[in-house]
Amino acid sequence: MADPEKSLTRDDPGKSLTRDAVRVLLVDDEAPFIDALAKVLRRRGYLVETNYNGPAALARIAQEPVDVMLLDVKMQGMDGLAVLREVKRIAPAIAVVLMTGHLSCDDEAAALRAGAFAYVFKPHPIDQLVELIKSAQQRPRDPA
Questions:
Q1: What does each C-alpha distance from 26 to 64, 105, 106, 118, 143 come to in angstroms?
Q2: Residue 85 contacts by C-beta under 8 Å, 6 or more apart in sequence?
Q3: Alpha-carbon distance 78 to 90, whole Å?
Q4: Rounded to an integer, what is the distance from CA 136 to the centroid of its chain?
Q5: Weakest-pLDDT range from 9-13, 59-63, 91-95, 112-116
Q6: How many whole angstroms separate alpha carbon 126 and alpha carbon 84?
Q7: CB-based burial of residue 45 (10 Å sphere; 0-12 exposed, 13-18 middle, 19+ buried)?
Q8: How many whole angstroms separate alpha carbon 66 and alpha carbon 73?
Q9: Among the CATH numbers 3.40.50.300, 3.40.50.2300, 3.30.870.10, 3.10.20.30, which is that of 28-138?
Q10: Band of the pLDDT at 142, cuts 50, 70, 90?
Q11: Backbone torsions φ then ψ of 57, nearest 5 degrees
Q12: What stretches of the chain show up as alpha helix (H) in DSSP?
């Protein structure tokens, strides 16, 4: 099992990446879910990293921001809404897509008010998730 405190930065060795590869950070305390999602997104040409908790993800983006973050809402310790607020404070240009297995109108409204690009149910169909990542990456960016 992967170390929950460590970012995984290894990309699929069969894929060649260009400078234009979209950098996606997956943040969820359910390691099997994001590890599987990371593998699928890498096959589609994304440069994917994973973190298994909010503080580790915040430390990662403080070092070098990413283009898009897919972030679970319900995590142990620091929840996704708290992570979102901090991301928007330290790296506002990152597009954050919140994912949840427990839809809540209140959480969705709070996430969108706090600057989330989208709020989706997980697991989300991969083709729709890829389109969402593309849209998030192409949107006009807030100043960093």
A1: 15, 23, 23, 14, 22
A2: 114
A3: 16
A4: 11
A5: 9-13
A6: 22
A7: middle
A8: 19
A9: 3.40.50.2300
A10: low
A11: -65, -40
A12: 31-43, 54-63, 80-90, 105-113, 126-138
- Tokens representing 37 are 């999602």
The pair of structure tokens assigned to 85 is 């607020």
Residue type, 112: L
Q: Which residues contact 92 (CB under 8 A, 6 or more apart)?
A: 115, 142, 143, 144
Question: In whole angstroms, what is the distance from residue 60 CA to residue 63 CA?
Answer: 5
Return the structure tokens found at 113.
């008010």
Amino acid at 83: V
Distance between CA atoms of 116 and 105, rounded to whole angstroms? 14
User: Each residue of 102-120: pLDDT tens digit?
Assistant: 888 998 999 999 999 999 9
